[in-house]
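ARCHIVE CARD
SHELF: 3
SLOT: left
DATA:
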Amino acid sequence: MSHESGAAAPTTRGGPAGPRHSSSPGAPMNHPEQPSAAGRPAPAPQRPEGVADGESAARTTFGEALHEALKAGGLSLQRLHHHLGERGISVSPVTLSHWQRGRSQPEREQSLQAVAAIEVILGLPQGALQTLLTARRPRGRALAVRSPVPEALSRVLSPGAPLEVALGADAYRFNEDLVTLSVQETLTLDDQGCIARYTVNHVVRALRDGVRHLTAHHNFDDPDTPSVQVAVNCGRLEALRFRQEVRSAIFDIGFGRTLRRGETAIIDYTLDIGPRWRSSDHHERTLPVPVRHYLLHIFFHPRHLPSSIHGYYRQSSERAAQDIRPLSLDASHSVHIMPAKCQAGIYGIAWKRHALPAAAAWPPCQA
């Protein structure tokens, strides 16, 4: 049905599976990126009329200039990371995201080399970014606690995952000020084998003061998915936006209060999906960091019961399934998985209406 991302960027997906490696879970889609700036110079940031060079530089931070240059050049952080790698410079997309947002700035020798290379990649004049760097920032308790979520997310999701396609550079700051403590999701399939209802319950904790909402992202891999109704059972729906070109729905759910660092909140919402004609065959969730509790519970319609069901785990969106275990329907025609130790990675349930071919449908279990 969907690829969903909530606090701490848990991501889930269900619906027609396609190739197993395509889950992000979610089928990989062509990134709507224009030809990279490596192939054409990016225009330099424009200076307002009547403002001298020195005045413009004083008003523009390194992060702002980097953000504008990337935007003008049509280059994503992943592609910039790739071009730097081709030059033997290793800077993660998360670090690049922090640079353009002003959360950190280049200070080490390799980082400063990266800035010089970025100027070449983006077609900027020499020194256009380097001259905007300020003195080394103080370190210690005065600085905010760094969120573990962005780095962890970049390890679990591969480039081109639905979250990155839908949100671009913002994918690496996705709910970075929240961490999931527990998550429970319940899916209900209709008599055509399609996921008709999807309910999620999150318990989250704030990593800093001032957090006001959680953002969720669902990627629908069925192009014929109709409009989706979102009902928030605990929390308040603040914004809902659809990106049909990448089959995504993104919505913000407010807590109704401002969280202080260390405070917890509960978010509970339901998606109701209109009738479809392509049956679903799996659902999975990505957890970039370990959680205390994860439960995936799926109810099948009595007129469309699967003959084979398996739970599985993947270390990342580029890794094959492992720990594959057969599941059996209970009296309510439902199955569930609840890992005893929920480490970071991708958890899912897949099903078939006919018997699995001998060993071909699933990759072998890995140690």
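SLOT: right
DATA:
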Amino acid sequence: MTILNNILAVSWREFRVICTRYSILLVLSGGIFVYGLLYNYMYAPNVVRNAPVAVVDMSRTPLSRSYIRLLDATPQAQVLTNNADLPAAKELMKCDEVVGIVYIPSDFDARVGRGEEAIYIMYSTTTAFLYFASMQEASAGAMLAVNDDVRPGQVVFLPRNDIQPVVQTRPIDVVGIALYNYTDGYGTYLIPAVLMVVIFQTLIFVISMLSGKERETGDILRFAGPEGSDLSFSRMASVVIGKSFTYLVFYALFSIFLLGLLPLVFQLPHLAHPWKIVALMIPYILATSFLGLACSLFFSDSDAPLLLVAFFSVGLIFLSGVSYPLELMPWYWQWVHYIIPAAPGTLAFVKINSMGAGMSEISQQYVILWIQCAIYFVLACRVYRYNIKKARYKDRTLLG
């Protein structure tokens, strides 16, 4: 009963500290709500269709007009005007009437007629990350179609011995199908992994800031009991469990927002049954909590964790194996994958929620998370015992 009372007391104290410290609330509100919404908003178009484009045609030849028709026929772009000059097209972009400009030089047709490489210039707005990619895809696709039309007439520029192999070679039609990405969009592929990284990143920050503040002010000595001498494993375990229970409650609510509400609002993949996500998030949040408490060994103040912002996000996405196959990574990066909870947790979430996998198909990542829970729990208990001893020694030195 005493252990249970200790757990409840630590949990309630941690809850009050989180709710009354503005720096923690700022990280939670900014990291969970603003960051989650901002990431989805930046990739909100997901798949851009019929984006208005201004074409500046300085060539004004049948070939350039053919290119403009093909550009307008692409699903990504819609030619708003092809009569504007470059300054007028830039004004249209400034007024948000077009998202891109395609500039066709005056020697466009002449270069093709000489058998040289034709050049065109593309401008794109950066109001949304996907506009540039869609513009590039549309303009390049239209140019490839023009190339297929004029290529037979270019054999006169080839050496005599090369003409017959070129004529006899059958064209290859390449059809790409994005597996498990029903919209073939960048946001559909990226955002589910990013949301899991956001949970890991913000939770590590919160724990590091809280534990750093405890060491900085000496409040960590409260966890050693009323007399300040109880450093038993059961006492430290009650401290770690109490703190982790509070984080689990908070991030269970945040997970509903990030993994439940946002996918519905922004039409992201959500194939997994809710109980599968719950079963995955329990060891994921616990492993992250225990890791954060174990890492409190390295933070003696509440500001140091903020310096680690630049070292997260992108690296964790790669380590998860979502954007780069885990099997192709060097052995040392594979080991890092098994050490950090964000890596197997993100991979498992993408499998069940974007690919429709069952729990048996993420059994490896699931077992890894529970093993991490056990290892980091023991480490967290030992680290808190060490931190309390160090704080007690520092307190006695100051008093002496």
